[in-house]
Amino acid sequence: MFNLKVLITFICLISIVSSVSSQYISSRNILSQNASSQDISPQDISFIYEEPIDDLNYTLPAEAVCPINIDFLPVDDNYILLYYTKTTNGIKGKHGLIINYSGEIMSEIYLGNANGYVGLSLLPNQGFINIGKPDEKGIATWNWYSTPNIITGEVVEHSSGEFHAPNLPSYTLVDSLNFILLDGGFGFLYIFKYDETKESPVTKDPNVQYWRIYLSFLKGKSDLPTKPSLLYQTTQKVNNITLKSCTPTYNAEGYICVMTLNNTIMNNNNSGTEINYYQLGFLSTGALVRLEIIPTLTNIMDIDLRTLYYGGFVVIYQNATAIDFYLLDDNGNYMQSQGSFGPEFFNYNTLRINNTIIVVKEQGKNKLEFLFKPIPKLKTNQGSEFSP
Q1: Domain that holds residue 41
Q2: Model pTM?
Q3: How far is the CA of 111 from the CAs of 71, 119, 148, 162, in angstroms?
Q4: Of 103, 137, 164, which residue constitutes the final position of a domain?
Q5: Are 50 and 26 in contact (CB under 8 A)?
Q6: Residue 310: C-alpha distances to residues 128, 306, 325 (Å)
Q7: Are 366 and 312 found together in one domain?
């Protein structure tokens, strides 16, 4: 059973904190006693939502695959898109439900590729998109849907097409990433790895680029993606390169991606894995303008590093006893801790536009607590909010 009302309430709370995150809102219970007092500031916002016993739960269709892993996307002031994977005639696909904030299901739509990306246009009334994962030929289909009808909630597909990876005979496409564009469109990044089995020993190039990243734009109000252009390449023979995220910069000049390089290192005849984080910055033209390592202050390799809208990064790492947050500036320098939350907090997220951390605690079978913690803004029209 999937509790639709809890989800809608959670989205409503996010909407509330988006407009009042700079104000203090009291609650019946602020934070667990396991969290230290220095983790709570006068601007922290805490909500407790208690579910009525007779609440109506909504059950996803029987064909749904792992319905607990559904995602949601507020697609309009009045509607939410719930999307999930289900199997039809043995083929997995991504399906969506358009619901209103009263929990009524307005329509169901087929989105496309089960492993695809679903994103909302950055501009109002431009709808949302589903972009599939590239196939073996490097072709990824996309389907762009309208904003829901304000009365009926109906959505229609207004355009569709394909992204085509560049033809590189000596390289293999290993991964891709989608992101939103400032003009209301969407971007597509391809990661290629050099395939040594395809090279000729006679023409072996000592300066071969082992990894390449290409970039393509599907600009707003366009039905044709741009031809992929080379964004980054390296002669480093690392194990793997991963793009974690790509987001617009605060000054609207371009985009910042968080990229990891995974490599094997030797120490006293023992091998180990080293993961380094980098920021990859580029303009709306596709020109690379920044490539710098982001230092991390933990030996934990599996961290969650996110770009902040007002500059800098938040580093999140989780273990059996706590979820810890700390703030870095644009150059990766440590600024300050943003709190440590005990194991009773089972989920977290960040609101990028509001520089806000969200942590969620279950207080009982039908009660949840949401804590919204503002992060200092490093870049604003009035200067920086940061104070050590």
Answers
A1: 1-55+300-388
A2: 0.78
A3: 13, 11, 14, 14
A4: 164
A5: no
A6: 25, 12, 17
A7: yes
Contacts of 249 (CB under 8 A, 6+ apart): 255, 256, 281
**294 has which bridge partners?**
277
Residue type, 25: I
148 close to 78: Cβ distance less than 8 angstroms: yes
Separation CA 299–CA 164 (nearest Å): 39
| Number of domains composing the chain | 2
Q: Rounded CA gap, 42 and 19, in Å? A: 17
Rg (CA), the chain: 22
Distance CA 277, CA 260 (A): 5
pLDDT digits (tens, 9 = 90+) for 283-326: 999 999 999 998 876 666 678 888 888 888 888 888 778 888 88
Structural contact between residues 146 and 127, judged by C-beta atoms closer than 8 angstroms:
yes
Interval 117-130 mean pLDDT: 93
Q: How far apart are CA 302 and CA 326, in angstroms?
A: 15
- Tell me how far CA of residue 371 lies from CA of 32, 79, 253, 388, in angstroms: 10, 24, 32, 22
pLDDT tens digits, one per residue of 187-244: 999 999 999 887 666 566 778 899 999 999 999 878 899 999 999 999 999 999 999 9
Shared-domain flag, residues 9 and 84: no
| DSSP-assigned letter for residue 147 | P
Distance CA 67, CA 1 (A): 9
Residue with tokens 């009035």: 382
Q: Provide the residue type at 212 as one letter.
A: R
Residue 384 has pLDDT above 60, yes or no: no
DSSP 357-384: EEEEEEEETTEEEEEEEEPPPSS-TT--
Each residue of 15-63: pLDDT tens digit? 444 444 333 332 223 233 333 333 434 455 555 544 443 443 444 444 4
Domain annotation covers residue 107: yes
Same domain, 15 and 92: no
